[in-house]
Design a protein that fits this description.
Blueprint (H helix, E strand, L loop, with lengths): L1 E7 L2 E7 L3 H19 L6 H12 L7 H6 L1 H6 L3 H4 L22 H4 L4 H8 L1 H7 L2 H18 L2 H18 L19 H13 L16 H14 L1 H14 L2 H4 E6 L2 E6 L1 H11 L2 H23 L13 H19 L8
Antiparallel strand pairs: 1-2, 3-4
Helix pairs in contact: 1-11, 2-16, 7-8, 9-10, 9-12, 9-16, 10-16, 11-15, 12-16, 13-15
């Protein structure tokens, strides 16, 4: 066993590990998660994404339950795949957000609902520059419907997991603005504060009961409603943090906490508690809305595909599982340009 140091920018982590590639893969992504928390990178946080996909399974009708419960660990674990490949796969990053300000006042009510209309009006490059999450949800809705029609187990699971991720992102207020981390208003770090720190401290209190999934006739409209609802909450996300900061001294606002042997600067429990109270369970509501929407879309795709019998689908083969793992390793290689043990 060897002590190794992995450095991401100014963040430094020490780990004990052997040099098996799959172990290295897990460790490095652990550091990436830590970096996201420290730097406020735009992501719900791995735990929340996984929790949303997992809970959505229990909203599904009885005809879908055996298949989805059988593969619940896959859907949970792979809910974070889009974040893992975000900086390694060209075209992935814009699927997670939309910068509403780029299109002027009331943009989220004026932008074309459908992708082809949006491209005709703005061009693909412009749309990609400013984020495409509501259109990405529609694209993955159609892909999942086709996967159900084919009764292709691997494709169903992969697309369902990804669709759940983008739906969850669409429900995050800070995914609807250029000021995604408060960097334009002197509130750097607010992204991880809202979507990682608050759930970390208060998720056990959340009421995540949503009721059964329901069929969504107008999925494009539903995707835009999610983004609009999240954006409507943006003002309170930023304003309440700013007001609270004015009443706290820096040494009261922040605290040092031990994370796996590393001291990290984070928002204090007192500051977090006050912010949580001011938001009146906003994070809880957005998580719950995400769970309901994911379940609704999964069920809608299945119904639009003709309600295929999922009990006759085949299991993932060992070859497919190895291919999935190899794909994740390739994302990491492209991101960090890390050499495998055999290349050293």
């Amino acid at each position: 066993m060897t002590i190794n140091k992995i450095i991401f920018g100014k963040y430094k982590c020490l780990y004990l590990f052997d040099f098996k590639w799959f172990r290295l893969f897990g460790i490095i992504f652990g550091c990436l998660i830590m970096q996201n928390v420290c730097a406020g990178n735009p992501t719900w946080g791995f735990w929340a994404h996984q929790r949303i996909n997992r809970l959505a399974v229990f909203t599904l009708p009885i005809e879908m339950q055996p298949f989805f419960k059988k593969h619940i660990e896959y859907l949970t674990e792979n809910a974070v795949n889009p974040d893992k490949r975000r900086y390694a796969v060209v075209g992935e990053a814009p699927r997670h957000y939309i910068d509403a300000e780029a299109y002027g006042d009331s943009a989220l009510y004026r932008l074309p609902l459908f992708w082809n209309d949006a491209v005709a009006q703005y061009t693909e490059d412009t749309l990609a520059l400013n984020g495409i999450v509501p259109w990405a949800i529609q694209q993955y809705k159609y892909q999942l419907t086709e996967a159900f029609r084919e009764r292709n187990t691997r494709r169903i699971l992969r697309v369902a997991a990804d669709l759940g991720h983008y739906i969850a992102d669409a429900n995050v207020p800070l995914h609807t603005t250029r000021n995604y981390n408060g960097q334009l208003t002197g509130q750097e770090g607010i992204h991880a504060f809202w979507e990682s720190r608050l759930p970390e401290l208060f998720a056990e209190e959340y009421d995540m009961f949503t009721g059964a999934a329901t069929y969504e006739e107008k999925t494009a409209r539903r995707a835009w409603q999610a983004v609009r609802g999240a954006n409507a909450a943006l003002d309170s996300v930023l304003r309440f943090e700013r007001e609270l900061t004015a009443r706290f001294k820096p040494e009261q606002k922040y605290a040092l906490e031990d994370r796996n042997g590393t001291l990290l600067k984070t928002y204090s429990r007192e500051f977090s508690q006050r912010y949580h109270q001011m938001l009146a369970a906003q994070v809880e509501r957005q998580m719950r809305a995400s769970v309901k929407m994911v379940g609704d879309f999964w069920m809608t795709c299945w119904i639009d595909a003709g309600q295929p019998d999922l009990t006759t689908t085949t299991d993932l083969t060992e070859i497919q599982k190895k291919e999935d793992e190899s794909e994740k390793q390739n994302w990491l290689k492209r991101l960090l340009k890390v050499r495998t043990e055999n290349e050293n």
